[in-house]
Amino acid sequence: MSFLAPDNIIEVNNANIYQQASLVLSGLNFTIQKGEFVYIIGRTGTGKSSLLKTLYADLPLRKGQVHVAGFEVNQLLHREVPFLRRKLGIVFQDFQLLPDRNIADNLTFVMRATGWKNTQKIQQRITDLLQQVDLPGINKKFPHQLSGGEQQRVVIARALINEPMVLLADEPTGNLDPDMSEEILKLFQRINNSGTAILMATHDYEVLEKFPARVLKCANGVIEDLKVFP
Ligand SMILES: Nc1ncnc2c1ncn2[C@@H]1O[C@H](COP(=O)(O)OP(=O)(O)OP(=O)(O)O)[C@@H](O)[C@H]1O
């Protein structure tokens, strides 16, 4: 039996991360506290995405223990995974909005899938979320009518629907120019200031310099806790 310390949102103990038969990262030990902002850096192929996928139970953990938002990820049954995902917000590099639905319908789709039933409450939550990401009133627009940065902010709104305790972001600025990236980071800071922990994989050293925070570096099959960049 093991417990998540009350101030920790993520605990990783002696974990190995695999992709198929290959060991990508080994002997991982780190914790992330509630409300922390942490980057994962490392060259391409060093395992940043694989680590995030393990945290949201998209890759099985074969060795070690991982606790995320009160769930022991390595013990989760397949049917329990959605309960973990509801405690998380997940943001990827490619925006992954449904192209044939407007923004309100994109958000409603996820809300209904995660148990929201009351139409009035759904509409109110959409208004609040779009306000939160500085895109009020874009409900009826379609994804292709928005810039990349705007689409990414809608994705972030979608990730915030169920008030996650932690946001996992995989290269969220990977497809954006520097100004748009800065907007996304400012938004992340605001979200973080309101108490949501953020774990963000990135290659973007400009972002690290402008918005310094604790850094976990993936290299040579292990993770080094640099505390702060550089
Ligand atoms: N679906 C997969 N099947 C098999 N091997 C994979 C798969 N996805 C990734 N890998 C391998 O696992 C290793 C780690 O990849 P991963 O995507 O986690 O790295 P990354 O640091 O996130 O890279 P990038 O910055 O390019 O996204 C790489 O050697 C990669 O080739």
TrEMBL record:
Keywords: ATP-binding, Nucleotide-binding
UniProt-recorded Gene Ontology molecular function terms: ATP binding; ATP hydrolysis activity; transmembrane transporter activity
PROSITE patterns (alphabetical): ABC_TRANSPORTER_1, ABC_TRANSPORTER_2
GO cellular component, one term: plasma membrane
Domain ABC transporter: 10-230
Entry-linked SUPFAM superfamilies: P-loop containing nucleoside triphosphate hydrolases
Family, per entry: Belongs to the ABC transporter superfamily.
Known role: Part of the ABC transporter FtsEX involved in cellular division. Important for assembly or stability of the septal ring.
Name this protein carries in UniProt: Cell division ATP-binding protein FtsE
Species of the source: Microscilla marina ATCC 23134
